[in-house]
């Protein structure tokens, strides 16, 4: 199984809750899930994994570099698999929906601005808080 290999590669022992949670993050149509989202999805799939276990496993996944945690304003922390390249996020303030985007102009300008201040860019995290246009 792919999940078993991913766990081993990350230095984690293969346990059933870890496999189930990793599968859920992989297969769910939502790339950004809170611990509650993962818990509910597992319940709906008939999997018996408690919320406390989901929290603990997601924290272990984060420490092992398998997932990235985002603490967006006004919501729960959401987790996404660390398998995609760099991107930024938009968060809808009404629905909490998370939208990914990547813009080469923004990426370029950020580097230039940092350079103008005598630095080099190490990392960045851009979050736009948005609302559906009426
Ligand atoms: Zn993302």
TrEMBL record:
Where is it localised? Cytoplasm
- Report whether Ribonucleoprotein shows up as a keyword of the record: no
Keywords (alphabetical) are:
Cytoplasm, DNA-binding, Iron, Metal-binding, Repressor, Transcription, Transcription regulation, Zinc
Q: Which Gene3D superfamilies match?
A: 3.30.1490.190, Winged helix-like DNA-binding domain superfamily/Winged helix DNA-binding domain (1.10.10.10)
Does the keyword Repressor belong to this entry? Answer: yes
Question: What is a single Pfam family found in this protein's UniProt entry?
Answer: FUR
Q: How does it assemble?
A: Homodimer.
List the protein's name.
Ferric uptake regulation protein
Please name the source species: Zestomonas insulae
